[in-house]
Amino acid sequence: MAIRLGSTVINCTDLETMTRFWCAALGLEPASEADDFRLLRGPHVNLSLQRSPVSARDQMHLDLYTDDQEHEVDRLIGLGARFVRHVDDDPADDWVILADPEENLFCVCAKPADEVRDPGAGSAA
Fold it and tell me: In what residue span(s) does the VOC domain sit (predicted)?
């Protein structure tokens, strides 16, 4: 079992403009082309863009990747996180939204073990 920071997710209203900007700024390449979500990959970092109404409080959040989602969610709740909801409509894209002790949201994403240990492996949420 393992957990790692998989991506920082930025909420935005204009996905195409933000994709061009962040790819140029950080030397990233788009790794997904969904209408409402874009993963940008680089050799040392992932950055994700998510189409969403933007509010000052929720402009970005962390995605944590783990190969043992239930264990890590329980562990993080034990450390003071609060369960918000589980999104598992698509078996290939399963995440739990938690809030830290100051109510900042973050996601715990279920991923295969090799992707958790090797940031360059597989696809990401």
Answer: 4-111
